[in-house]
Design brief:
Layout lengths: L6 E4 L22 H29 L6 E5 L1 H10 L1 H12 L3 E3 L14 H19 L5 E3 L9 H6 L5 E4 L13 E4 L2 E8 L7 E5 L4
Parallel strand pairs: 1-2, 2-3, 4-5
Antiparallel strand pairs: 5-8, 6-7, 7-8
């Protein structure tokens, strides 16, 4: 029976407040702090806290055989710390079970990989730092925003000392066949395809066997 990799992605953007033309030049408070607080607290109470506790319970009951990968954006972690610390604690308790792989990503859940390599690098490193600060874990597996992938992204990720990459499910996006090796200088990654169409197939890019 094949293994199934369960991966959950959690993100909350900063909402913009209503900004009219008459507000131009009257300050720079662009974000709707009240809406951000209300939404994060509501979702934390209804989803993040109970889901984290349920997953932690499943991991413990299975003696660690049940495991998940979890991707938390940097701005989500920021807002949980500010508005819903009980949810951040619930995620910490989940990670502390030892059955969770925290994934790296762009800090702002952004499209920087397609636009600005330096901004992409800075965001990935900033995200790694907040995970290390809040959870004591430095990610070794990376997922790009919405699992976007092209062949220019893999070498950028490899240079960030990331050992694996979770990419999107469109083979048209890949200029190489799954299970082949991508090389960039001294870095190489092996693309392994997992086809579970009903659940959304996706490719894992992992280091080749030594």
């Amino acid at each position: 029976m094949p293994d199934v990799s369960i991966y959950c992605q959690v993100h909350q953007p900063y909402r913009l407040r209503r900004f009219r033309v008459f507000d131009v030049g009257r300050g720079h408070d662009y974000f709707d702090d009240a809406a951000n607080r209300s939404i994060v607290q509501r979702v934390a109470a209804k989803c993040y806290v109970p889901s984290s506790r349920l997953l932690a319970d499943l991991i413990r009951r299975s003696d660690g055989r049940f495991r998940i990968a979890l991707s938390l954006s940097g701005v989500l972690v920021e807002q949980l710390a500010a508005y819903a610390p009980e949810a951040l604690d619930a995620f910490r308790e989940l990670v502390a079970t030892g059955g969770v792989e925290l994934l790296g990503e762009t800090y702002y859940h952004s499209l920087s990989a397609l636009i600005d390599p330096e901004e992409f690098r800075a965001q990935v490193q900033l995200h790694a730092r907040i995970l290390e600060r809040e959870f004591g874990v430095r990610p070794q597996v990376f997922r790009n925003t919405e699992l976007i992938y092209d062949d220019a992204i893999a070498p950028m990720v490899a240079r960030l000392v990331i050992i694996a990459l979770n990419a999107g499910n469109s083979r048209a996006e890949l200029s190489v066949r799954p299970s082949s090796v991508m090389c960039s200088g001294e870095s190489s990654m092996n693309i392994v395809s997992t086809a579970v169409r009903s659940l959304g197939a996706y490719h894992w890019i992992v280091p080749p066997s030594q």
